[in-house]
What does this fold into?
Amino acid sequence: MQQTLTRPVKAVRRAPAPHVARGRTHPMWFLLPAFAILFVFFFLPTLFNFVYAFTDWSSFKSEIRFAGVDNFAYLLSDGTLFSALRVTVIYATLVALFQNLFGFGLAVLLERDTWLNRAARLAFLVPVLMSALAVGYVFQALLKPDGSLNDLLSALTGQRVDVAWLGSTTWTLVLAAVIHAWKWMGLSMLIYLAGLKTIPEDVTEAARIDGATPWQAFWSVRFPLLAPAVTFNVATALLGSMNGFDIVQALTGGGPARSTEILNIFIYRTFGQGLFAQATAMSLVLFLMVALLAFPVIRVLRRREEIL
Amino acid sequence: MTVPVFGSAARRRAPSPVARGWAARLRPFAVVALVVPVMGVPLWLVVVTAGKSQGEALSPDLSLPSRWHLWENLAQVWQQGEVPMAFLGSLLVVAPSVVLVLTFGSMASWILARRASRPNAVLYALAISGIVLPPAVVTIVLLLRQLGLAGSPVGMIGVYVGIYLSTVIFFVTGFVRTVPVSLEEAARMDGAGPVRVFFSVILPLLRPVLATATILICLYVWNDVFYAFFVVGGRLDTLPLNLFQVANAGLYLNNWHLIFAYVILMSLPLLIVFAIAQRRIISGITGGAVK
It folds into this structure.
C-alpha cells in the first residue's frame, strides 16, 4: 500500500533535478551554521589535542613549550596509561554486555501490553531520566558495608553479612558496570521492544505453521530480525561507557586503589591538579582508542545486518 | 520508518507468540518479583533517606523515618544548594542548546539529504563522526579561554551544540530522505524561496524525529556534569554541578538526607515532563532509533 503510493513520487523526483537548479533550491549556506559550530567547538579542540599532548602546558607555568613525548613516557613509566586503558576497555565491554542482556531480557519479559507490563516499563525508565551522578550516590549508600544491601542479605540469610561491595580491586569495577547497565537498561529495553514490534505477525505465523517450536521460532526467526536494534544498543552502550564518568566518580571516585579509574576520571583528576598537558595526553589516548575500537565494532554489526 | 509502538502495531497482533499455560500465568509474578527489588529498593532508599533527620540518615537504611522531615530537608537543600540559581543556570544552558542544535542540525541535514554528491558524502561523514568520537574536553577549555568564552554560558552552549550536532544530523538526515521531494516542489511552484520551504514545509514534517532528538539531548544535557565541570565549573551553577560540588564538600559529608533531598529536587523536572508526556516520549525514542 505504502509502496504503491511512494514509487511514482520517486520517479518524478529523479527526472527534473538538474544539478544547477539545486544551488537555488537547496543552497549550500544552510550547512554553514552547523559546520561553523562543529569546526570551532568540536574539530578544533580535537586538533588541539594532537598539539597540546606534546607540550608541558600546566597551571604552574605561564608559557607553553614543546615537550615531545614526555607526557606519554611519564604515563607509560608509572603504569597509569595501560591501567586506565585496561580499566576503561573492561568497563565498556561489561557495560555493553550487561546493558544488552538486561534490556533484552526486560523487553522479552514485558513484551505483551498488559497494564502491569506498561507500569513495569515506566518503572524501568525512571533511572534513565535520573542524573547518572545521583545514581552513583544512591548505590554508594546502598552498597556501604553497613548499607541496605548487607542489611537485606542479613535478614534473608539470618546471619550478619558485611561484604565491602565497593572495596574489592577486582569486583568493584564489575559492580560499577552493572550499575551503569541498571541506569540505561530501560532505554535498551524500549529499543528492543520497538524492534520486536516491527516484526510482522505473519513471519512468526509462517514459522509456526512450518512446525517450529516457540523456542525455535523465537531464536531462529524473531531474534535475527532484531539486528538493527542490537547494533544501536551495543554501539550506544559501548560509546556511552567509554565516555563514562559520573556513575563511577559518584560511586567510588576511581578507588579502591585506582582499580576503577576509567580514562575520564583520570582526566578529571589530573586536570584538577593543574597538569593540563597530561590530561590532554590521556584525552588523546581516549580519542584514539575510541576511534580504533568503535569503527570496527560498528562495521561488523552493520555487516551482520546486511547478511541477514 | 517510524512505527507506532504501543498502539496499533500491538493490537494488530494475534494474542501472543509466546507459550500460554503455566508460563504465561507465572509471568506477572515474575514481573513483580523483578521490579520490586531492582527498582523499588534503590528508589525507596532515596525517598525514606530524604525524609530522615541527620542523625537517622547517618547510615542510610530502608527503614521508615521515625518522623518525616522531607519538607525541612528539601527547604534546607533549596537554600544551601542554591537550587533556584542552579535551576536557572541549567535552564539557561539547556534551552538554547537544544533549540540551536535542532535548528542548525536540521538545516544541514536537509541539504545533506537532498544534494547527494561526493563532497557532501564526505561532509556527512565528518558531521556524524561526533556520535562516535569523544570530545576533547581539556583543549576545549584552552580554546574557550582564547575566544574569551571561558566559563560563560555562551561557551557552554557552543560546546553542547558541537557535541550533539552529530546525533541530530544522523537522525534527521535519515528522516529527510523519506520525505517526498514533491512536497517541497509544490511550495516552490507557489514561489517560496529555500528559507520559506525549509521553515514552513520541511521543519513541520520533521516533528517526529525532532521529538526523539529533543528527548535524548535534554536527557544528556540536563544531567551532564563532566563537560560542565570543565567549561563552567565554579563560574556558573547548574543542578548536576551543584550536586557534585555539594556532595564532595565537607558540608554534606555523610549528610545523606540532604544529598538525597537534592537528588529528588533535581530529578523532579524531568520526571514531571515524563509523567505528562510519557506516551509520546516512549514512541518518540523508539520510533527514531530502529529503522
Remarks:
- Residues 81-248 of chain B form a domain with the MetI-like fold fold (CATH 1.10.3720.10).
- Residues 1-19 of chain B have pLDDT under 50 and may be disordered.
- The longest helix of chain B spans residues 256-289.
